[in-house]
Specification:
The protein has one domain: 2-Layer Sandwich (Alpha-Beta Plaits). The chain is built from four helices and four strands, in the order αβαββααβ.
Length: 128
């Protein structure tokens, strides 16, 4: 039994490594309006991250800038660029997302600007 569990764990780790090397990553930076970062963080915490998962996006990590206020920086991953685009299309049309966005912006707009970059791991990356 232990041999089967060990073999299964090894196969899973190998599969995860191979799929990680083929995955596409997206680095996104949200610039909020003055004083609106907490509202954006609440929206992500309470709604957005769950909806990302619902639409096939993998949440990798989220950060706030220490030296540049009003910025949320995060990384998502997808099986491919086409999958990323399909996920975003479905996410934007999701009634749960529209409701969460509209509710969070009831007192005014939150996000001023969004930057997005799609990336693939370099050959020396631990993700390969």
């Amino acid at each position: 039994m232990l041999k089967k569990v060990t073999l299964a764990a090894l196969l899973l780790a190998t599969t995860m490594t191979l799929s990680a090397a083929e995955r596409v990553y997206e680095l996104r930076t949200y610039y909020t309006l003055e004083g609106k970062l907490d509202a954006l963080l609440a929206r992500f915490r309470d709604h957005t991250t769950k909806l990302f998962e619902k639409h096939g996006m993998t949440n990798i990590g989220y950060w706030v800038s220490q030296d540049k206020p009003n910025r949320l920086i995060y990384v998502l991953s997808y099986p491919s660029t086409d999958a990323a685009k399909a996920s975003w299309d479905a996410f934007r049309k999701d009634p749960e997302w529209v409701k969460a966005r509209d509710a969070s912006e009831a007192a005014g707009k939150i996000v001023e600007k969004i930057d997005s970059v799609y990336m693939s791991p370099a050959d020396f990356s631990k993700l390969k």
